[in-house]
């Protein structure tokens, strides 16, 4: 009887061991790049980290925070990080440069970027069309905040050369730049935008935190932050990529139901910029921008391609294969678990 029990136990154990081996994580220690982690644009990353979802998936993730999205992209290309939470548009731009970078889950369905003008310039800069000659603060040159304001200027008959762009960082430094009069206008994200509004320092010109605001600019959704990686890394480490995708998908589902107070309590206090109530207000202003399901549809991809082709005439939309910018297979498996 004892022998039969042992054999039965062994027969049950072998499939379990096989399942573990089949899903073994190839690279449990990862380095992930981001360009401005305290920004609400990247909130899902902070939540995944703080809620322990990376650890739950068997991952140890070291997060390197760079001055802007373009710098985290450079780190991925250079090999100093394994993955990036950054703007979807980078996958298109890199394909044009023969670099195969693919998103595996969408974190933000709207850019969440606001273009506003300093109260000192509100009388002369009343719309995007008045930005000619202005000093415009962005997180970093080449980042999504930089690209969006360029797009808006070109749509209003101007050239990006008609304004000066100044990298102001992603937190208190951006607020200080506006306060000190170092910039006339800003293209930025929450909580910086809500902080400036609360201080009476900012008049909003364009707001892509909401459905209505994004549709006014793009005519529909326009994907923002995603998790993207080199295709070579995806092929070599599919279980690792699956684990990352699982963690972010669980985060999106948590975020969908979380109260603003729960979100504020989860992030580091320094992200509040000294005011918890203001952080909650900023989250509420940006809440619509987060993806509820992690997917990117074809219309959204085309919208992003149009933005890039408008701001960079060297890119030929006909030569871009959008199906190679987003791999939804890992997301499908995450949803099925």
- What fraction of residues sit in β-strands? 15-25%
User: What is the subunit organization of this protein?
Assistant: single chain
Q: What is the fourth-level CATH superfamily of the largest domain?
A: Periplasmic binding protein-like II
For the record, the CATH architecture of the largest domain stands as 3-Layer(aba) Sandwich
Q: Provide the gyration radius in Å.
A: 21 Å
Number of strands: 10
For this structure, the CATH topology of the largest domain is D-Maltodextrin-Binding Protein, domain 2
Note the total helix count.
Answer: 15
Report on this structure.
The chain has two domains: 26-110 and 222-336, D-Maltodextrin-Binding Protein, domain 2; 114-207, D-Maltodextrin-Binding Protein, domain 2 (3-Layer(aba) Sandwich). The protein is α/β, with parallel strands linked by helices and 337 residues long. The protein has a five-stranded mixed beta sheet with strand order 2-1-3-10-4, sandwiched between helices. A five-stranded mixed beta sheet has the order 7-6-8-5-9, sandwiched between helices. Helices cover 45% and strands 15% of the residues.
